[in-house]
Write a structure and sequence with these properties.
308 residues, 2 domains, ten-stranded mixed beta sheet, 33% strand
C-alpha cells in the first residue's frame, strides 16, 4: 500500500517537534508501508485532501490511501472532503483529546496507529453535517462555542495549552451565560425552547460514569440531540456531573431526541449568523441550521469492529 500522510504541524502533540515528518515516516517503514509524508498548516489540510481525491486511483503503483495526523479538527476537515467518496481515510491521533480515534477503537501511539493503517482493513462509518458542513464528533450552539472562543483567546494571549486555558474560559462563559430562544424540529416534534445550549452528536453518546462522553457505535445513522433546559448558572456547571452520575431529570435538566434530521430556527438570528461549534472549531452560520446524519458515508482504515 502507498499512502499520502498529511501532518498538521500545529497539532497538540506535534507543535514544536522538529522531527515529526521523520518520526511518521519511520512508523510506516516499521510496518512495511510506503508513505509520503507532508507537514502542513491546519487550514491547508482540506485543500491537500481535495487535490488527492481529484487524482485518486486505487490502481497499483499509485497512492491508494490518505492518512491525516492531528486532532479532531484535522480529522474532521479531511473527513469532510472524503465523505461520500471511495477514498479510505487513515488516522494518526496526534491531537489533545482524539475523541474520534478513541471511539473507533484506534491505538493512540504513533507506531501502533501506523500499523493499523498499513494493514489496510476498512470500515464504513457515519458522519453528520449541518448546512453542508461535515463533522465526525459533535456540534453545539450556545455556551460551548462561546467557551471555545474564549479558550482560544486565552491560548493566544497567554501562550498556554488547551487544558489550562479551559478553566478561565469556563468561568468567563458562566458569568456571561445567556439563553437562546429557538424553534427545533426533531423526532416528529416541533417546539419552541429557551436553552443555554443544544448538543448534536454524530451517533448516540454514552452518559454512564464508566464511558461518559464516548460512543459505542458509529454506524446507527442517528443524531444524538440534547437540549439543555433553562436553569441557573450553578445548574449548568453541575450538569456534566449529574449526567455522568445518572441524576439527570428529563423535565428539569435535559431533553433528549434521537433522529436522522434536526432543524434549528431562530428569529433573532435570521439576519445575524449564529455561533456554531463543529468538532471544536467555531464558525458563524446562517439559520435555520439543518442537521443530517449521513450513514456509512466515510470509509476509514481502522480494522475490524471491536469484538469481531
Amino acid at each position: 500500500m502507498k499512502i499520502l500522510v498529511l501532518v498538521n504541524s500545529a497539532a497538540g502533540s506535534v507543535a514544536g517537534s522538529e522531527d515529526i515528518v521523520a518520526r511518521v515516516q519511520a512508523a510506516f517503514v516499521l510496518h512495511g508501508a510506503d508513505a509520503k509524508v507532508r507537514a502542513l498548516a491546519g487550514p491547508a489540510i482540506a485543500d491537500a485532501a481535495r487535490a488527492f481525491v481529484a487524482t485518486w486511483s486505487s490502481k497499483a503503483g499509485e497512492e491508494s490511501a490518505l492518512a491525516v495526523a492531528g486532532g479532531d479538527g484535522t480529522i474532521s476537515a479531511a473527513a469532510g472532503v472524503l465523505a461520500g467518496t471511495e477514498v479510505p481515510l487513515g488516522i494518526l491521533p496526534l491531537g489533545t483529546l482524539n475523541h474520534f480515534a478513541k471511539d473507533l477503537g484506534l491505538p493512540l501511539e504513533l507506531e501502533a496507529a501506523a500499523g493499523v493503517i498499513a494493514a489496510g482493513h476498512t470500515r464504513q462509518v457515519d458522519v453528520a453535517e449541518v448546512n453542508g458542513r461535515v463533522f465526525v464528533n459533535n456540534s453545539s450552539i450556545g455556551l460551548y462555542p462561546f467557551m471555545v472562543a474564549r479558550r482560544n483567546a486565552f491560548q493566544r494571549l497567554r501562550g498556554v495549552g488547551k487544558l489550562l486555558a479551559t478553566i478561565p474560559a469556563l468561568l468567563q462563559t458562566l458569568r456571561g451565560a445567556s439563553w437562546h430562544r429557538l424553534e427545533i424540529s426533531a423526532a416528529g416534534q416541533r417546539q419552541r425552547v429557551r436553552t443555554p445550549c443544544i448538543f448534536v452528536g454524530n451517533n448516540p453518546y454514552q452518559v454512564d460514569l464508566t464511558a461518559f462522553g464516548s460512543r459505542a457505535r458509529l454506524d446507527t445513522g442517528e443524531l444524538d440531540i440534547r437540549v439543555i433546559r433553562q436553569q441557573s448558572r450553578l445548574g449548568v456547571l453541575l450538569l456534566p456531573f449529574k449526567i455522568a452520575l445518572g441524576w439527570v431529570h428529563p423535565e428539569r435538566d435535559v431533553q433528549t431526541f434521537h433522529d436522522a434530521d434536526l432543524e434549528i430556527a431562530s428569529r433573532r438570528h435570521r439576519r445575524r449568523p449564529l455561533r456554531v461549534s463543529l468538532d471544536g472549531e467555531i464558525m458563524r452560520m446562517e439559520t435555520p441550521l439543518r442537521y443530517h446524519s449521513r450513514p456509512a458515508a466515510l470509509r476509514v482504515l481502522c480494522g475490524p469492529p471491536n469484538g469481531a
